[in-house]
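Onboarding guide, step 5: your first structure request.
Type a short instruction followed by the sequence, for example:

Predict the 3D structure of this protein.
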Amino acid sequence: MHLKLKPGRMKFAIIAAGEGSRLREEGVQQPKPLVKINGEHLIDRLIRVFLDCNAEEIVVICNDLTTLVSQHLQLLSDQGLEGTSAPLKFIVKSTPSSMHSFYELSTMLDDAPFVLTTVDTIFQEEEFKAYVEAFERVVADGNDGLMGVTDYIDDEKPLYVGTDQAMNITGFYDDNVANCTYISGGIYGLTPSSLSTLNACVQRGESRMRNFQRALVSDGQKLKAHRFSKVLDIDHASDIEKAEGFLRRDATKDMSR
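The system replies with structure tokens like these:
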């Protein structure tokens, strides 16, 4: 049974609980959420973009291994972001995987459509706003989710996304066995109906977000795909400079495809 949702409500969620061990090994001392891209913390950038998309609420999970991130989130909660009040809630807890981080956030996401991403997901803001608008239309049309995808592959272990001509998602694959055009961009627009699938995955001992996505398809969730030109992650120190170049306005024309 699908929950009857009030129109116009939208939540956003950020998984910021990773340890950033690869960045630290490569000399980046800041916790990943506080890494700066063009002078802006990763976590601040996402919150700013979400506020621009009229976020009703923004929920975040960070780990308990360092107090710097939780202190920063508390400051944002108390003082807002650059003078703008932020409807922010956060959990401080270390988890074994991104799926478990999502599970910890899920109790705050059970009453409205939501967009979930990890803290290091880099995209063009204009494309993200178009995606949120498309997600609202997809939900209004009775679908269960809209996944951000891209045909730009710069991932060590991409998750391939099968789609039909109408951009309905037909499957998720570790290898491109289905001749897929797209890979997952790690941007998940979902309705609360997805949370029963998440709970079942956790109960089965699953720990990877890609297995959760496969389970959504197996459970009959109606998912559509939305194309981004590029989506980048910050996994290595070299990715910081790459992301800065991607986001600079003077590089947009060369980077877009």
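Each response can be followed by summary notes, for example: Residues 142-232 form a domain with the Spore Coat Polysaccharide Biosynthesis Protein SpsA; Chain A fold (CATH 3.90.550.10).
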